[in-house]
Structure formats: C-alpha cells, structure tokens
Amino acid sequence: MALFDGNNIKLDVLKKWAYNYRWAEVPEGTIPLTAADPDYPVAPEIRKALRDYVDNGYFSYTPKMGYPEFMEAASRALWERKHEKISEDCILPIDSAARGMYIIAETFLKPGDEMIVFDPVDYLFKESCLAAGGVPVLFPAKLKDGYIDLSELENYITPKTKMIGLCNPHNPYGVLYRQEDLEHIMSLCEKYGLYIMNDEIWSDIVYPENQFLSILSLGEERTGRVMSVFGFSKSFGIAGLRAGMIYCTDKAVFDRLVDKSAVMTTAGGIASVSQIAGIACLKECYYWVDEFIGHLVKNRDYAVERINRMPVIRCHKPQATYLLYVDISGLGVPSSQFTDYLIEHAGLALVPGGDAFFGPGSEGGMRICFATSHEILEEGLNRLEKGLKMFLEENK
Fold this sequence. Notes:
- Helix content is 38%, strand content 15%.
- The chain has helices at residues 11-17, 44-56, 68-82, 97-108, 124-131, 179-192, 233-236, 251-261, 272-284, 286-307, 335-346, 374-394; strands at residues 31-32, 91-94, 114-119, 135-140, 143-144, 147-148, 161-167, 195-199, 226-231, 244-247, 314-315, 323-327, 348-349, 351-352, 365-369.
- The chain starts with 10 loop residues before the first helix and ends with a helix.
- Residues 31-384 form the Aminotransferase class I/classII large domain.
C-alpha cells in the first residue's frame, strides 16, 4: 500500500488524539481541514527509532545543549536540503519552533521595542513579541502579481524598531520570497541595524515548479543578525513531540540565545524522545517528505480548481505549504461568521481569517489545510460547496 493511500489514515486514532481544532475537538461527523498537521501517520523510521529508545528502558538526562548527533544531522540536512551553511555549534534543539520564536524575542527585544509583524501572518510572531514586552507594528502584507508587496515596508520602521519577522514560506498565503525580496529586507535591516526572526518551518514543503530561497543565502557576512527557527511538525508530522531548533551564523548571537533559553539549567530544553525522533527525521525520512509533496501537489491542484469554480469565493495556487488561503470577502460577513456557519450547517471546520489567527489584515479570508487523503479532501470540498450554496441562498 502506498504511503499516502487514503486507507492509511486512522480516523479512530485521530478522533482520540488529534487536537488543536482537529478531529478530537470538532463535533462528531465534522471534517476538520484546520490546523496544519497531516492526517497521515509518521514515517516508519520515526516509529522504529522511538521504539528502540523506549525498549532500552532508560530516560536519562540529555546533554544541556542537546545530543551531538542531532546537531550533526541538522547541520548536514540544512546544507543538503537548503544550502544553508550552519555550524553544528550554532544549532540549538528546542521544544518547537514556536518556543524558538519566544526565545529570540525575549533575547533581543526590550520592553517598548518595536517588531515589524506582517499582516497577515501566523499569530506567533505577534505573540512572541508581546511576551517579550515588545510592540508589534503591523505591516499590511498585500499580494501583488503573486508575491508580497514590500514597497512600503521601510515606512513602518521607526527609531524604536529592533526586529522584523520573516515567515518564509509564508503562512497563510503559501508564497515564497524572491531574491529581490530578500535583498530588500536585508538592505533595510543593514540600514537600520535590525534583527530578523526568520521562521522557516515550511521550507521543506515547496512544490516542484518553485524553489525555496532562504535569506541566509545572502551570505554569512550579511546574515549575522538573522536568527532562524525550524520545526518538525509540518514536514514530518510530529507536532505532539514538540521538536524544533534555533540556528544562526554568529556565535556571539547564538550564545545569547542559549543563555535566554534556560537549557543550561534543567528548566529549558527538549525531551530526549523528541531529539531521537528529530534525528530519525533528519537522517532517514526526507524520502517520506518528498513522496508527501507528490501527494500534496495532486490535492493542491484539485482543491484550487474546485474552489475557483464555486461562486463568490476565490483562491490562488500556493507555491509552498499545504494550506490554501481563500478570499471570501465577497460574502460581506466576518470570516468567523461563515466558518461557524459551515460547522453548524455543513459539518466542515476551517480556520477563519481575522485577528486571532493571522492579524486583522486576514479578515475576509479563511484557510484550508489539505494534508489529508484525496477522499477526505473531496468530501470536505463537497461540504464547502453545499454550505456556500446554502449561505448564499439564505443571504440574498
């Protein structure tokens, strides 16, 4: 049976264990195309690595900075997959990319410092800034010719600006940054002495007709103030293990991150089992990611075509991620009103735009995750079409 055959999805297990707006949290009979988490079980190599570790019978303390094998595997994978040259001694395993974002903000933002946060973007940029006492300054990230328009970005920089948040690939748009985009952002950071919080958690999920380009590709001599986070949840489906890492090119910057992370005490850090899973991902499971992308291409193309045949709503074809950002502004109601309607009347759960998830600039949109089987996706889109038709008839 192929890895991404629909029969491999275990709905009974998902309904018990898949939380965060997914199968275990929605009403019975509802299809959740919500949180960015695959419906498929993880690669067999991850399960074997965890079983072997558990069978040894020991769960001892780990090295404070993480297992050396983790950093070795991460350094090699970053180079081979993304051509990012990162020394092993500048990689810190941490309990999720989200936690990495908080550490970066807490390390380099003082109370009152401003951080430019794109709007829309994943809410963790804003939340990590606020947790550090910083002030999020929302930059309207509008699409122009299929890319985020950065022409007004400099106008949002003030004497209090200390950091720019960069989500590449972008969530929820699913777009990549071009060489000229990254050059523009870096030039502004150089001009004003800014740090960059660089979230690359989606950098493995890029479609064959596109190529991921990291801001780190601009060269080590320019990227010392870039701090990157990566997590294993989107590529490998191990969100519940909370495995991620922070990395950078400047050792002095890295040492400050380590100090703030509390890994040198036993208060911070990442669990041993999470590192074991992360090592297996990095060393043995990229074949799984590549096959997953092949499956996702078919789901993406099918979903885009279906949605764009529906009345009023529209979406563009994402270059990366397994997310669709759907424009529902033509309905003339708040995003959450329509997504609530779909749950109640069509048995379909989607993520609404709006301040809670992506920022106020996402109002009038909604997000669909298609990291599932073709059969589940098809039924979900059938329900969207049915629910949309009912909604339009009721609101003539």
